[in-house]
Every structure is written in structure tokens, then in C-alpha cells.
Amino acid sequence: MERRPGAAVLCSRRTHPVAFLSSVVNGLSYGAAQVLTTPATDWYFVHKGASDSAPPVVYQVAAWGQKENGEVVGLVGAFGADQAKEGKAPHLVTVPPVAGSYLHREQLTGDEVLQAKKR
């Protein structure tokens, strides 16, 4: 993890004096004016299942994050039984590096809605 001196962390369009060091995690830079995270209400990332007969995989996007290169990506929750066993805290990560689509809740198919409710 790269750390650089910074002033404050930008989050949800407000400046918070939370950290005095910035860091780069998953290609996102956290620090003064480095990244802007914005809530992603009712947005999902959807990709095909592992096989043709598998249902789609649906992640609810918690926030949009901006990478250092200006690219905006969806951030999803990363916490499950494995992370709990390892004592890791819940956190956000970028969506998986697979071909997929960002869809608003109103754009989801019936099957995608069912899959979203399972998470």
C-alpha cells in the first residue's frame, strides 16, 4: 500500500479530517482531492454466471469511486465468512474484473432482481 502525505479524505462530497496520510488501495487513491466517493443508490453491477445455465451474478453498488486516472468505478461490499474468520473489517472494493454492466434497479430483469435479493 502506497502512502503519501495528505490533508483530509474526501468522501460523499464532503471533506472529512479523518486521515493525515493518504493511501492507494485497489487503484483508488484516498487523500486530499485524490478521490471522490459518491453514494450509488439503486445501482447494480451484473455479469453472466460461470456457465450458460447459471443465473446472473448481481452486486449492489454501494458507491462510485474515482481512480487516479479519472476512471469512475463501482464499489461493492467485501465481507463474508472468510473475512470474518480472518478478523478483517468490512470494506469496499472495486467490482470484479469481468465483463458486465452497471444497471439501475429499474433496468434489472426479474431474474436479476431475485439474485440481488439473495446477497
Offer a concise description of the structure.
With 119 residues, this protein is mainly β. The protein contains 2 helices and 12 strands.
Description:
There is one protein chain. The protein is mainly beta. It has two helices and twelve strands, in the order ββββββββββαββα. The chain is globular and about 35 Å long.
The DSSP helix count reads 2
The helix-strand sequence is: EEEEEEEEEEHEEH
Outline the low-pLDDT stretches: 1-23, 29-34
Query: How would you sum up the global shape?
Result: globular
Biggest beta sheet attributes? 4 strands, antiparallel
Q: Give the helix/strand class.
A: mainly beta
End-to-end C-alpha gap:
29 Å
Overall residue-averaged pLDDT value: 75
The overall number of domains is: 2
Report the portion of residues in β strands: 35-45%
Helix content: 10-25%
Note the main attributes of this structure.
119 residues; four-stranded antiparallel β-sheet; three-stranded antiparallel β-sheet; 12 strands; globular; disordered N terminus
Helix and strand arrangement:
Layout: E1 2-5, E2 9-11, E3 14-16, E4 21-25, E5 28-30, E6 38-39, E7 43-47, E8 57-60, E9 63-66, E10 72-78, H1 81-85, E11 91-94, E12 101-104, H2 110-118
Antiparallel strand pairs: 1-4, 2-3, 4-5, 6-9, 7-8, 7-12, 9-10, 10-11
